[in-house]
From TrEMBL:
Low complexity composition-biased segments: 287-301
PROSITE patterns, per database record: FTSK
Organism the protein comes from: Candidatus Eisenbergiella stercorigallinarum
Pfam families listed in its UniProt record: FtsK_alpha, FtsK_gamma, FtsK_SpoIIIE
Protein name, entry field: DNA translocase FtsK
All residue ranges annotated as the FtsK domain in the record: 623-821
Domain of life: Bacteria
PANTHER family listed in its UniProt record: DNA TRANSLOCASE FTSK (PTHR22683:SF41), SPORULATION PROTEIN RELATED (PTHR22683)
Biased segments, Pro residues type: 481-490
Residues binding ATP, per UniProt: 641-648
Keywords: ATP-binding, DNA-binding, Membrane, Nucleotide-binding, Transmembrane, Transmembrane helix
Membrane-crossing residue ranges in chain numbering: 51-71, 77-103, 115-135, 174-195
Amino acid sequence: MAAASGSRSGTKKKNTASSRTKSGSGRRAQGKKAQNTKGIRQEERAIANEILLIAVFALCILLFLCNFGVIGPVGNAVSSVMFGIFGMVAYVVPVLVFVGLAFRISNRGNFFASLKIAAGILLFLLIGVALELIGGQAASMESYSVTAFYTAGADTKMGGGVLSGSLAWILEHFLGMVGAVLLVIVLSIICLVVVTEKSFVGGVKTGGRRVYESAREDAMARRERARQRRQETEKRRTEEAKEREEEEARRDARKILRMDRKVSGVMPDLTLSQDPKAAGAQDGPEPAGIRRGGPADAPARAQKRAGADPDMPVDPEKIRIHSAARKQEDDPGVTAKQKVTEEIPAVDPLEKSYRDADVFRDMKRMEPLHITLEPVGGQEEPEEDFRFYPTEGMEEEEEGWERQPDEAEPAHPYPQEAEKEPVPEPEDTAPGQEETPLPYDTGRADRPVQEGSLPGKAEKTVAAASRNASAKTEEGDAPRPKTPPRPYQFPPLSLLKRAENKNGLDAARELKNTAAKLQQTLATFGVKVTITDISQGPAVTRYELQPEQGVKVSKIVGLSDDIKLNLAATDIRIEAPIPGKAAIGIEVPNKENTVVGLRELLESKTFREFPSKLAFAVGKDIAGKVVVSDIAKMPHMLIAGSTGSGKSVCINTLIMSILYKAKPDEVKLILVDPKVVELSVYNGIPHLLIPVVTDPKQASGALHWGVAEMENRYQKFADWNVRDLKGYNKKVEEQRKKGDPDAPERLPQIVIIVDELADLMMVAPGEVEESICRLAQLARAAGIHLIIATQRPSVDVITGLIKANMPSRAAFAVSSGVDSRTILDMNGAEKLLGKGDMLFYPQGYPKPARVQGAFVSDAEVSDVVDFLKNQAIGNVYDDRILEKVKSMEGSAPSSAGGGTEERDPYFEQAGRFIIDKDKASIGMLQRMFKIGFNRAARIMDQLADAGVVGEEEGTKPRKILMSEEQFEQYIEECL
């Protein structure tokens, strides 16, 4: 029984489960059926809607054409009905009907869509009401008439028709014209808000805010322009006042030439100079009216103009120079034998050059001359004070005199100490006058009064005085020693122009907008960053980004092209990360570049206070700070970049920095210019050891002389038991202070500049490479430094040996990343902008710094060179060095890569084979060409010297440094 009951219960359970399964499957079948039915209905409804839209579209086109009378009589009748009902807006009724129907079908069941359609219909009627109120007859109708509205609309096609006209009549008669217009405007605005879903109040706020912002920006711009005009006016007034003060000072500070009563002539070798104690504090331009070295006939002409007797005897021993009692600030430099109570501080050469500029420019202009004569014979006659002004003819004579060479120089050890023997002052010297020799003029040598320059009887008087002076010299005067070269005068900074740059008022706003766009661009790609700093440089602006935790640096670097696209930039450079900062720098070019003038750098405190004489004003970095580097610490630099990138300007900047910082006895230059036209302008400056070298073979001789000079200096260091040039010069100074007559001369630092290395490597690669490598390895302590520039930074020009010994590099814009890696061992230079944009990588920098190089024009260089040449310091070249350079020209043995006749016959085949196999080993050459080990090793060494393969790395194969195209180019050019 139990078994039977159990079997029945099991059967029931199975039946229940099967019934549940059947009911579930039935429900699913019903659901599927309902879905299919619903889908079929939707498809049918969509087809019906599409058919309805097509039919309505055709009907609307037909109604639209009826309004223009192109459908015939039926069309005209239909058009009259529409104009009678709707009035003037009947033109757009077909279009609005189709748009409304399409909008309704596409938004079926949407309440807001129905509300918008209702608002659109009401707005359509309100437009008709407005047209009726403006040009209809609702205002003139006394009683309401549907026929009148219909007829007016059908005939005139104006007004609002029956619908809008009726509404207009009701509003006008119950609310009046003003009330009707006001109500129409309010309802129209409400309908527009409902249809467009745009806030009218928000639009008014936005418009008001824009008007306010525009007015505020205009006011700020006006205030800025007014401020600039005020500054310009104040600057102009200050300059005019300064010019007036200088003119008054020049007019008042004339030297008074005071003569004794017993005069017999004028000494022909008379020189005027200043007290050596005042020379240290004297840095300003010469303020005196009598200029040292001026025309010698000035006193005689002055006497003739004053009515004095030209035959009056003049005693040269009693000629003195006096200055009237002026204020100390009017002439602070005239301090010889003056009782000066105020201390005049020493002035930096650069500050001195500001005041020397006027002297250099006005060198040919003669100042008025004050001369006071005392008669002979002891008679008390009133002193005659008169001014001497040169006439046009005298100015021409003076210009011709100034072009004469400096043959007569003062016979004194130092020109600033060339002072006349002390003469006792006369007892009748006025208390308000002080004896003041002229300040030392470093622009020209002291010249004696020349006999031939005096006219008439005054010339005879001078000739007699000359004979008396020569007789005295023959009787017992000792001969004067030979005059050394005159001191070097630094060129004035006024010879350099200031850079003219435009400062935009909206620069800060543009930077912020770009930063926001950059942040939004990165956020689009899922990179969230924070802009921490913006540094605007002369050519590029760096945006410093700090990514969130978990963002890879490589992800930001990979988005460089997308960033460039969104910022519409010509090119960008990403520095990830910035050395010393937890940030990534993105450098974006500025829309308007700023020119960095050399004068701005030389005026900076950084350059003026730089301790080294080999200071190099490089330019400005990414933050706008002045970058000044020490060539002595580099100690050698390689400059490379494509044509027009700014290499030659950089070299000019380097040379000009040395000219403004060091004297010729402190730094000497050897310039090698195979291109002939770049550095030849510097011929004649006192810093040159030899003329600018333009012949490539003579250039190798100059480099060989540098090697010999280096070895000679090291021998001197060993003899004096010192380690470097600084210690040697210190020992020499100590010996000189002790009075040792056998003490040697101080040794200057030497900078050798090669403008184009590729030309030298093509003519004499072996000799040039050997000399460069020896100098780069050993010349630092000897005070000899190399600056090498090339526009072809390929491995056959910048060989591995040269590159290894040039620790400092400056990379300008190059064409490819291969050239960038050749210069810097990394990419980056191919993204530079040119025109002085460089990656400066001196020794000691962890990464290259982006710097905008300074600009100096050819005219400025010519002005500075002319200023240095006009100093007439003497023969600036060393003939002994010239002879040595000529004797060394081509005398050095060529290295393994120098001569083409020593190449192995298998050299070209071996090079192509190695490049093709991308593997370099001596055993492979042995097997390929069936040669011995020694010959294969010699071929491999020749390939290494040519830059085809790298140096040995133990048992590893050598690295391949050239491509097949570069090797073929090397064969064409060098073999």
